[in-house]
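Illustration 12: Phosphonate ABC transporter ATP-binding protein.
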Amino acid sequence: MLKLEHLKKRYKTGPWVLKDISFEVPEGEIVGLIGPSGAGKSTLIRCINRLIEPSEGNIYLADACLSKLSTSQMRTQRRKIGMIFQEYALVERLSVMENVLSGRLGYLPFWRSFLRKFPSNDIDNAFEYLDRVGLINHANKRADELSGGQRQRVGIARALAQDPRLLLVDEPTASLDPKTSRQIMRLIQSICRENGLPAIINIHDVPLAQQFVDRIIGLQGGEVVFDGKPDELTEDVLTRIYGDEDWHPEPQDDADELEQAEVA
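Figure caption equivalent — predicted structure in token form:
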């Protein structure tokens, strides 16, 4: 279980980016984190694994208080937190297999990690993870030969290689087309279900979040302004999160439809 208690973040100059954030994520629950740009979503995710240091508050993962650990202690705990990045964060010149195996570096002694000498069990597991994300036939390709969707799948396989207890996912579909976005979200959902993994997904696409997450937390100005089920995300709630907007689809007039038909 992940638990945040009164988490706050402010940089040396400027206002509070996060203001007194408290919530829990039980095992197996997938949380969609939504809100306008600048609401603090990415900062919150990075505070959880202390890629950004919180200013105040506590973060618990199972029995460990992450916010009070030393740098070396946090390095040990961080290997239990799988991170999937918007920009994929792959080493382009390395193969797909090598990128997946990099998820095991935190478990290896220095000489093995320096020489990239992975135990055979890690290699066998990496093949299983690549098979799970549908990339078993791309194991020897360089990462820079892959499409955006394939790169994101490598990032998911790398996170799985860590044998994590928590998944943090930052805008996994921002650079992907609608079909690939749905495939990636479905893959993350099924992996969390299979492994009982809790996950927090920072996502801008609200309809996509509603389809694939169990719970939605809405941030506005660094504060939680909504925490509930996807079907509770009404127009009033969306307005509270994003501001005034007409949330109904705009009807197209005949001229627009004719123009689209001609383009098609």
